[in-house]
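Continuing from the previous page of notes. For each protein in this section, the sequence appears first, followed by its structure tokens. Read the first protein now.
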Amino acid sequence: MEVPLSWQLAKLAVSIGMVLGLGAIAVRVSPRMAGLLAGYPLGTAIALFFIGLELSPGFAATSAVHTLAGFTATLALGGGYLLAGRRPGLPGVVAGTAAGLAAFLAVSLVLTRVEFDRLTGTLTTLAAIALFTWLYRRVPESIARPTGRFSWAALVVRALLAAVIIFVITGLAHVLPAAWAGVMAAFPVTMYPFLVILHLTHGPDPVATVIKHYPMGLGSLLSYALCVSFAYPTLGLALGTLAGFAVATLWLVAWTRLQAWLGNRRAEHRGRGRPSRDT
């Protein structure tokens, strides 16, 4: 099927606008709000939507089932990048990217040979989340120090890289089975460009911290892929996408509140454990 030029232009505009919009929110509203939006399944949503638009909603729904398991390959990408991308600057980015992509493709090759359903796909990624969280338990925390100014040039590079990835994923969907299309839709379209820019500007330590915490942020992505796998055939692409974002939002709000509650409980526990100054 030949893709109309208008769809290609829309895909380009949405892909670039997604990253630029997050950057504008970070500057004009708050980094916290931008962080919450970055937790949305934006790259996966764009990939699955345009796969459905260019092929069929049914094909996209089937792909979404494999996307559920495909997030395991995304975790493997992060692990490969963490192991190899330990040098600062461009050499670290190149080595981390090469190892990350090799890990992603190797795990994808295994995943596409398995006939997943919604339950087994979700359980596969949940098991991978538990495994990688345990493996990363000793990765030290590091904070990227602000440079004092916002780099629109870096943001444009991130946006263009994200757009290229989206075009590659949706283009491959025309020649690959639904299983491969679904796994490719799990590629971290927004996170990978962020890792590259963060690595180049702040070094490998903050990158390791982002990768360390990435597994626990996959709940929103899982919620979205699971929802659209049901919604696309019945509601269509537009309403199915809205339903997916609604479910992802509910999960994100619940997860954020749970983290805040656990943080308060830990703070209260530490406070009770401190000896009184009067004793």
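Done with the first. The second protein uses the same format. Note its length before scrolling.
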Amino acid sequence: MSKLPSVNTSIFSVMSAMASKYEAINLAQGFPNFESDCKLNELVTKAMRDKHNQYAPMPGLLSLREKISEKIEKEHRVSYNPKTEITITAGATQAIFTAIAATINKGDEVIIFTPAYDCYEPTITLFGGKTIAYQLEAPYYKPNWGEVKNLLTQKTKMLIINTPHNPSGTLFTKEDMLALQEIVVAHNLLVISDEVYEHIIFDGHIHQSAARFSALKNRTFITASFGKTFHVTGWKLGYCVAPEVLMQEFRKVHQYNVFCVNHPMQVAISNYLEDSDKYMALPKFYENKRDTFLSLMKDSKFAIIPSQGTYFQLLGFAEITDESDIAFAERLTKNYGLATIPTSVFNNKQKDFKQLRVCFAKTDETLREAAAILQSI
């Protein structure tokens, strides 16, 4: 008997398979098609040659946890104890899974903000929880906190937020985070703050991490991704930070889930983080990618509000066709050779705002080819 009877193959796998079948440009799955820094690759090779090939410590290499602690203090002026409040994980998805597994019991309700990354709800379900979806509305995807409060019940245990937000590219503001803080303190709730795109923020905006708000920080698991930050999504290396009382519960699950994660890569990233420019330069790097793509799309028929963060851009197609976003995405792949993601799959009850998500973490050549196709529609 299935514990997840309604779960099918993820849309990312479906669209990437279609892209391969029809030899289409793949703007669907969120990964860069350019190389990572050769220096980082060389550091991994060196770590393996230096015999860092056996199990890492269960919570992660201490030197890497110390670098993460230093990074957070530099960016947000708050501290996490690297020994007791930081754990290295097999990507942010494993961190999210572990945080839910450690805290959610049968009957607990978890509020998520849809459109939502597709790992949240199945994990909640797996551990007997109930997902309560708050639907953010196109085109700006801004929460109404009064409406969020109306979803609270005696069974509410946790909220899961994602900022910068996938797929919309929207940022939670300082005011949003203060409103969230007020809610979770008043109702004694936990939070998972999915901050995998923490360094990919545009137009001078500041990442409003949950770590910046003291009462919120004390109730929050923050999850992050080196894969997103350093263009190495295939490495599946991330981390979770949380107050010690929460991290103790997190590690109880972590040690029996993966125990520890890739040792030579931890050594390499620990050394790589010595140079903060490696991640501080990301906003401008990806802002240039976004602007290149938007300039190429300026005469298209798609409705576009520039992404504020992440490496995703939404394209509204209501003026082009009345097809569903799934049907239009399939037709684009089969007939035009361009794979995208229909956003309804992330929404509550698959609400269709007639928008596609594209990934602009691509070479300029790929962006030009993709834009030429979209301009022709």
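What the second structure shows: DSSP finds 15 helices and twelve strands in the chain. The mean pLDDT is 97. We return to this in next week's lecture.
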